[in-house]
Specification:
The protein folds into three domains: 329 residues, no CATH class; 112 residues, no CATH class; 121 residues. It has a four-stranded mixed beta sheet, sandwiched between helices. It is mainly alpha-helical and 651 residues long. About 7% of the residues have low confidence. It is built from 30 helices and four strands. Helices cover 64% and strands 2% of the residues.
């Protein structure tokens, strides 16, 4: 999967959505004008021809009023959902899952999601449960991966096996990586406006008939009925738009899920289970129509499924994922008494599952050997591409954390101390403890000391995954608590008189996820590298200085990248060359501003930035864990989550 191309396509889809929206609005405006014209004829207010109506000023007033209603509906929904994924989850009545829960099925979901985040580099989404929904379904929502939520129905949690759950979670993570969440939430706002005319119609039909019992009231009822019919044009338009946008992206997410897990049997079995459960994937939620395009499977019972459904049929999806799956299920049922036959079939099942998906996704011929990421190009291209090796790596890392440590990860107070420990192990222990004694209470210090030795023993490659697991818990703090905690972390980092690049980027990552503006959508403002010359100069200088190479090698690696990178080599304002900056010129404020500007590059341009940064880091033929972590954190801030570099890929 090409992460950057998919992100670019998602941006284009938003523009296509706007075009669909304008076409639907045009049809509705014309229909409303026709209805109002005949309404006036009925009341004998306007005894003119339709041609006279459409050339009169009344058309302008009716059209403006209609557009105002539609725009108001869209803006109201947009404002309601501007906080992102959490707003969508609360809107549908979902309840946040306690990360410290003892429920076995919910713990299974938490573990699968955390492992998927470690494998993909995507921040762990907040988990919500639709407790009263027996239908099997799930969706993700949000503007950015940093504030994404995953909502799962009780039916899904109760019915899915771990393997099936892993397939569904991988499908939803694909939507996060492909930029589908932004499309979905924009579509949600647009369709709310289209349905406003229907709401006005229902309002008129249900108006107080005790006040008016005459011909005018009857006419009002008729007008309300006709506007409601026009509202159904809006519903039809909405379903057509959702069907046009969603179906192909569902196929893509299914294929990506297979690529991530290397197991088509998991997601195919999940889809088959939905077929065989009475409730299916249907939801009894007032927002199931509005959110139908966001779910894992069809949330509505639809008759015209061939052209109005937001999802392909379950059987078609199963056949696309694994053509032989249904036949094998039938064969098992026919031969259920023949244990020996079934045993032989099961022995060869994995090979059949792997080979059957080749028509959808191409995999390395030898899935046992995962190529090491040794070039800058391969490093950048790893965005959004999770291999079986990454999944296995994530499982091993997740299971290597002790039970006590994971208990602490899911509690706010202990999670705060674990982050401080991750900072502490990179500085002088004695001076670090002296600072913390002045700023922490006795209980907090005890928790800090309790886990300090375990954090120190952690291999380098496990520390960033641990931080990623801590972020969802830290998000549970109030806004004021988050602000105070970020201030404490910054003071702690600066307390030893050193402020390393990694420490700053570490703090930037915390701010990226915890600061007030963390959930805001990133707007693309820069479509050329020349618009961000100074920011690129600063980033490439950071990467050059992060290496412990000799000064000559730093200049060599920097100049090599700048020479071939499509950016200006001369500042037109000052006439100065964009040379390697002196380390003293690089301040935290400048780094923060540079990363913020680079995050506003178009997705395809970000690919080049990450590749060039990796090229500088690898100029000596080696990539140390500290450099790999720095690159991954920078990529995360730019909105391009990267999977972890596997141990064999790093020196």
């Amino acid at each position: 999967m090409d992460f950057f191309s998919q992100q670019e396509k998602a941006k284009r889809y938003t523009k296509i959505l706007l075009l669909y929206f304008l076409i639907a609005v045009t049809f509705i405006v014309v229909a409303v004008n026709v209805v109002i014209y005949y309404f006036f004829i009925f009341l004998e207010f306007y005894p003119y021809t339709p041609q006279d109506w459409f050339s009169s000023s009344m058309v302008f007033y009716v059209s403006i009023t209609t557009c105002f209603l539609i725009l108001s509906g869209s803006l109201f929904r947009w404002f309601k959902l501007k906080s992102g994924g959490q707003a969508v989850a609360l809107m549908v009545g979902a309840k946040k899952i306690d990360l410290h829960t003892s429920d076995i099925k919910q713990r299974q979901l938490i573990n699968v999601v955390e492992e998927m985040s470690i494998a993909s580099g995507v921040p762990v989404p907040e988990l919500y449960l639709l407790e009263r929904e027996s239908g099997i379904n799930a969706f993700v929502a949000g503007y950015l991966p940093t504030e994404a939520v995953m909502v799962v129905t009780a039916g899904a949690v109760e019915n899915f096996t771990r393997e099936e759950l892993q397939g569904v979670v991988a499908h939803e993570y694909s939507h996060i990586l492909n930029g589908d969440m932004q499309i979905n939430i924009h579509l949600l706002s647009m369709l709310a406006g289209i349905l406003m005319i229907s709401s006005v119609g229902h309002l008129l039909m249900n108006s107080d008939n005790h006040l008016v019992r005459n011909r005018n009231f009857s006419a009002l009822m008729v007008l309300g009925f006709l506007l409601s019919l026009i509202g159904y044009i809006g519903v039809l338009s909405g379903r057509l738009i959702k069907a046009a946008v969603s179906r192909q992206r569902e196929y893509l997410a299914d294929a990506a899920a297979v690529q991530f897990t290397r197991n088509p049997g998991g997601i195919a079995s999940a889809l088959n289970k939905i077929r065989n459960v009475k409730a299916g994937s249907r939801l009894n939620n007032i927002y199931s129509e509005d959110l139908s395009h966001m779910f894992f499977a069809q949330s509505l019972k639809m008759k015209l499924t061939s052209w109005l459904a937001t999802h392909p049929s379950l059987i078609l999806r199963i056949k696309r994922i694994d053509p032989g799956f249904v036949a094998r299920i039938k064969a098992r049922k026919l031969n259920v008494k023949n244990k020996e036959t079934n045993s032989q079939k099961n022995m060869g099942e994995l090979n059949e599952l792997v080979s059957s998906i080749d028509s959808i996704v191409s995999f390395p011929e030898n899935m046992e050997s995962v190529p090491a990421i040794v070039t800058a190009h391969e490093f950048a291209e790893s965005a959004g591409n999770i291999s079986q090796a990454h999944m296995e790596f994530a499982t091993v890392v997740h299971q290597s954390f002790s039970f006590e440590l994971m208990q602490a990860v899911h509690k706010v107070e202990s999670a705060k101390m674990l982050v401080l420990n991750l900072i502490l192990v990179r500085m002088n222990i004695d001076s670090g403890f002296e600072f913390l004694k002045k700023h922490l209470n006795k209980n907090e210090l005890n928790v800090l000391k309790k886990f300090n030795s375990e954090i120190k023993r952690l291999e380098n490659y496990k520390r960033l995954p641990l931080l990623e697991l801590l972020l969802p818990t830290l998000k549970l703090m109030t806004d004021s608590e988050k602000t105070d905690y970020l201030i404490l972390c910054e003071k702690f980092i600066k307390s030893d008189g050193r402020y390393t690049l990694f420490e700053f980027v570490f703090l930037s990552l915390l701010k990226q996820h915890l600061a007030f503006e963390s959930g805001k959508e990133i707007t693309v403002k820069h479509h050329s590298y020349k618009q961000v010359n100074k920011e690129l100069q600063l980033l490439f200088s950071i990467m050059s200085h992060s290496s412990r190479s000799l000064s000559e090698l730093r200049h060599e690696s920097y100049n090599k990248v700048v020479k071939y990178f499509p950016m200006s080599t001369l500042d037109k304002t000052s006439g100065e060359l964009f040379n390697l900056l002196d380390f003293k010129e690089i301040t935290p404020k400048k780094i923060s501003a540079a990363l913020k500007a680079l995050a506003q590059l178009s997705p395809l341009l970000k690919r080049g930035v990450i590749e060039a940064s990796a090229d500088i880091a690898m100029h000596d033929g080696q990539l140390k864990y500290t450099e790999a972590e720095l690159l991954r954190v920078i990529a995360d801030i730019l909105g391009c989550p990267l999977p972890p570099l596997l141990p064999q890929a790093v020196n």
